Amino acid sequence: MTLTTWYLETTDPAELRPGREPGGDTRFVRAEVPSAELSRFLYTTVGGDYQWTDRAPWTLEEWRDRVADPAVETWVLYDRGTPAGYAELESQPEGAVEVVYFGLLPGFLGRGLGGHMLTEALRRGWDLGERRPERGPTRRVWLHTCSLDGEHALANYRARGLRLYRETTEEGAHAQGVGG
């Protein structure tokens, strides 16, 4: 199998082109209490159809270590009180923030929520320095996706203002830590 991976970034919050507001009771909320079980549920449920495999063998202790890392934030999109999707952000050196994971639960695909959730995830990447002043201001928000991802993912990323800065192709590869 051939796997193409696209790396995208934004280097200015003014580049953000917001997705449409979904209306109704939709909220994007930070999971402030670290929960290994919640993060594992979101990862496996969102990534199941896209061959997310890099964290599949993790023990509960490894999940606990990840969510307890002060550089990591988990944000959950709720639709009328029900988890609909999530984004995992990671603060990195030199003002970078990676959207490590991003995606909707299967029952919420095709409802116009992805553009809104990505808008909110990018905003949270840009304002991470305000929540964590010790890390300094955000200078770049980035992510990667691949050809195993949802059919609209790359278009959504580009529509929100992210620019392609690198592309790789591998033969015989499988997904490892790709965003949805």
Describe the model.
There is one protein chain. It contains five helices and seven strands, in the order ββααβββααβαβ. The chain is of the alpha+beta class and about 180 residues long. Helix 1 packs across helix 2. The longest helix is centred in the middle third of the chain and has 13 residues, at about 115-125. The two termini are about 20 Å apart.
**Helix tally?**
5
Cα shape: globular
Helix content: 25-40%
**How many runs of DSSP E, i.e. beta strands?**
7
C-alpha Rg (nearest Å):
15 Å
Largest sheet: 7 strands, mixed
Give unreliable regions as ranges: 176-180
In whole angstroms, the N-to-C terminal distance is 19 Å
On the 0 to 100 scale, the average pLDDT is 93
How are helices and strands ordered from N to C? EEHHEEEHHEHE
The spatial strand order of the largest sheet comes to 2-3-4-5-6-1-7
Structural class: alpha+beta
Oligomer: single chain
**Content of β-strand:** 25-35%
